[in-house]
Amino acid sequence: MTAHAPVLRAATACAVCxxxxxxxxxxxxxxxxxxxxxxxxxxxxxxxxxxxxxxxIVTCVxxxxxxxxxxxxxxxxxxxxxxxxxxxxxxxxLGNALMRLRTARMDKxxxxxxxxxxxxxxxxxxxxxxxxxxAWLLELTGAADRSGWRRSWADRLAGTVVVEVPRRxxxxxxxxxxxAAPVAPVIERPAPxxxxxxxxxxxxxxxPAAKTDAPRRRRTATPVSATPVAAAVADAxxxxxxxxxxxxxxxxxxxxxxxARAASVxxxxxxxxxxxxxxxxxxxxxxxxxxxxxxxxxxxxxDPGRTVSKVHARLEIxxxxxxxxxxxxxxxxxxxxxxxxxxxxxxxxxxxVEDGMRVRVGDRTVTMTRLTGADV
Length: 376
What we know:
This is FHA domain-containing protein. A six-stranded antiparallel β-sheet has the order 4-3-13-12-9-10, with helices on one face. Strands 6-5-7-8-11 form a five-stranded mixed β-sheet, with no helix packed on it. Strands 1-2 form a two-stranded antiparallel sheet. The chain is about 30% helix and about 15% strand. Helix 2 (about 40-65) runs antiparallel to helix 3, helix 2 packs antiparallel against helix 6 and helix 3 crosses helix 5. By secondary structure, it is an alpha+beta fold. The chain has helices at about 5-10, 40-65, 70-90, 95-100, 115-130, 135-140, 155-160, 170-175, 225-240, and strands at about 100-105, 160-165, 260-270, 275-280, 280-285, 295-300, 315, 320-325, 335, 340-345, 350, 360, 365-370.
């Protein structure tokens, strides 16, 4: 949600490829990108009810246990403060967590922070003072939001939005639908490919470097997060074999088999975010990561649902294999097989990423596609 326009298109069109998306779909049928959906009014009202009930229950229990109204008021203040901290840091208070909702900033995929959460909480408190039902009436104002994001008056004042968090089954379905990243066709000898040979790299006819339109670029070990960089690499990969059109060629689908000649790896997230990295390298993934070890690359993962930890996982990529380590994240990490089966990772344990597997960090899924020297 870096900019409003791409986010608002997600209701009827994919924000990544622009294709039409059926109402209620979890992913784009064309590119597989996850569609961010606003929370329903009913879910928002239920979340508010849970938060208010939690504070009321704590207050009543303390008053009954101590027979002191003063201690009850202190307990209510402390419970409210705890909810405020949770909302400010994670976007999910008790009610949001139970209803699988997240509150985020409207201008970028980040937690609302203390100031915005204070504004929303103050609006709810004022609403409670109006016939004791104003807090729920405030949530109903989201139904009149013409932007399609069901933002209540409190959201508009605070600059926030409340979105749904996809369930685990939906995330697995979206991961299975996500296609591999587009990679340049490989020039090969015109020979039919037997189905039994799909796991073996096909013979490649080398194209002289002098016949390429785009010069090869050297990659440096710098933090990678900007999408335009990935687009530039993809353009160079497509432009490279154009001058060799005299050689009979047919496109070959990219297979997950590892290649010792790999020069780079393209990381593709289910949100459409892409980042090319050199080989070998170590990459730290997270919401706002810092290098775990000297020389590590860092990639800030776009995650409006706030399910990715600040420093979530570490990828180690070599010319022959890849490893992943969950760095003690809050929502955990998984390895997803080609059939959609998910295998949770043990925190701080280095695990091999087998061919065809994808890595899930929080609610985000990343696919690693190896590009050979001829592709870049």
